[in-house]
Design a protein that fits this description.
Blueprint lengths: L7 E3 L1 H4 L3 H15 L4 E5 L5 H15 L3 H5 L9 E3 L21 E6 L7 H4 L18 H25 L15 E9 L13 E4 L5 E7 L4 E4 L5 E3 L7 E5 L1 H6 L9 E3 L7 E9 L5 E2 L17 E2 H12 L6
Parallel strand pairs: 1-2
Antiparallel strand pairs: 2-10, 3-4, 4-5, 5-12, 6-11, 7-10, 7-12, 8-9, 8-11, 13-14
Length: 323
């Protein structure tokens, strides 16, 4: 496997709706996500203009004065501005992380009004988004992007189910009202002489189901290969970097991997990226699918509520969620 050998997956045959197309893409997904857990997906149907508008909104946000960003600092519902060097990935499975991430971000989740059942039930992270009064124009393109990505995630989840030998509707209920995070990230350039353990994003795995990453012009993402080497992920025009995450690993009984990855920005310029995390509802109980447990074998993972799993990691890694 070469240093840039991140597989490409064309989603178009599956999204066109034919059974043969779904089977073709499902087979390809199973090959990729059982081995490396990352791919460059094309044929996803998301308009390039929508992505361009998203990155313009991100640039406008990050260009705001520090006081305007701080005014909507991330809250207990995990929405808003996350300032530079305020998250340290202590839950990393491949490194002992001591230094905070060298990035700042604007975090938007699924928007929930006061009368939403999750808020009435007092579920963790239930709430509305925070928007910067100084840049009202960024809201509309961000919300359009979130809606398009939510639809794409629900469609891809049906192909994932088939890839795991389960009925296509296996994840429908859990993802009917998904937990979504759109994180608009800015990574300042790291000096060439910076310590080896200083990262834009320290080595980590993602917590949830699927992550769709839009990269903008500059590289920096690296993925840990099965043999332990770090692979550079190139920027491919029109592609999303798609990875399977911890909860999907559990659902698949370890058949699909949740691969450590990191960001090191040595481009000499500011780097922007936009991961969209697509996860099940907070109350979803995740346990290995029957299709992924061989007859007579015990599942590798005990059942876990996604909300409990998520909050454990947020409390460990973010100062904003620590008492």
């Amino acid at each position: 496997m070469s240093e840039t050998d991140i597989p490409t997956i064309d989603l178009a045959p599956a999204l066109d709706g034919s059974d043969a197309g779904v089977d073709e893409v499902a087979k390809r997904l199973d090959e990729v996500y059982a081995e490396i857990g990352f791919g460059q997906v094309v044929g996803h149907g998301i308009d390039a203009e929508l992505i361009d508008d998203l990155f313009e909104a991100s640039r406008r946000f990050h260009a705001l004065p520090a006081a305007d960003k701080a005014a909507i600092s991330v809250n207990e519902a995990h929405r808003g501005f996350i300032a530079m060097a305020t998250s340290t990935i202590v839950t990393s499975s491949v490194d002992e992380v001591r230094r905070p991430n060298q990035s700042e971000s604007f975090l938007v989740m699924h928007d929930q009004p006061e009368d939403h059942p999750d808020r009435l039930a007092g579920l963790p992270l239930a709430g509305p988004n925070q928007w910067p009064p100084a840049a009202p124009e960024i809201r509309e393109p961000i919300e359009r992007y979130v809606e398009a990505m939510r639809t794409l995630g629900q469609r891809v989840a049906r192909v994932v189910a088939v890839a795991l030998g389960a009925p296509a509707d296996t994840f429908d209920a859990a993802l009917a009202e998904p937990v979504t995070f759109l994180r608009l990230l800015r990574y300042p350039p790291q000096p060439p002489q910076s310590p080896d353990d200083l990262y834009g994003a320290a080595p980590h795995t993602d917590y949830g189901f699927l992550t769709f990453l839009a990269q903008h012009e500059l590289p920096g993402l690296q993925v840990r290969s099965p043999d332990g080497t770090w692979l550079d992920v190139p920027v491919v025009d029109g592609a999303f970097v798609l990875n399977s995450a911890d909860i999907l690993r559990r659902w698949s009984n370890g058949r699909w991997v949740s691969t450590p990855h990191r960001v090191i920005n040595r481009t000499g310029e500011e780097r922007y990226s936009a991961p969209f995390f697509f996860d099940p509802h907070m109350t979803t109980v995740v346990e290995p699918l029957p299709s992924c447990v061989a007859p007579g074998e015990r599942p590798q993972y005990e059942p876990v509520a996604y909300g409990d799993y998520l909050m454990d990691r947020l409390r460990a890694n973010y100062t904003q969620h620590q008492d």
